[in-house]
Design brief:
There is one protein chain. This protein is α+β, with helices and mostly antiparallel strands and 175 residues long. Helices cover 18% and strands 33% of the residues. The strands form two sheets. It has a five-stranded antiparallel sheet, with no helix packed on it. Strand 6 and strand 7 form a beta hairpin. It starts with a strand and ends with a helix.
Amino acid sequence: AKLILGGTNDTKDVTHEEFPVIVVMNPDKIVGQRRATTCPDFLLDPTDAEMLYIQLPISDLDTLLHTHGSVIRFTDNDDQSYEAVVRSGTELGNPFDLHYYFDHSLRSIRVKSNNITDALHKRYVNEHKLKGLIDRDYLDNLRNQIRYWNGNRWVQSIVGVGSVQITPSEHAQDN
């Protein structure tokens, strides 16, 4: 069994910044008050429940607007993938989101934008506050910035926290 959580890492941690996260935990190992392994300054023992900790990137829109994204929805998209929706803020009452897709091993597959996010980005490009377009290269760059916590540092390849091994069959069983 596993528990998949999404939100924002907003604690004083090894990165010293806020970022959207996905955390996979073993619910059988959630015991008492413990700290995330990414947060060494808390005076609590580290949890043994963390299986996988995923850092999603901060977009150029986040940087420009001083916003911090949060995973607001994590769904089983289809037989082969999950979808994580990261919302960073609203512009004129409309939320701007990025959609991250993962296979059932939680390896990143692709990133998509939406019309509101595209229009907002284009507006700031036209105002010379941002450069470039939200195109395939832009979205692939976000995908390539996804990091996994290995218990000591953030790495690009999928890895479990500490000694937890991540395999495709382990995640596929929990559909």
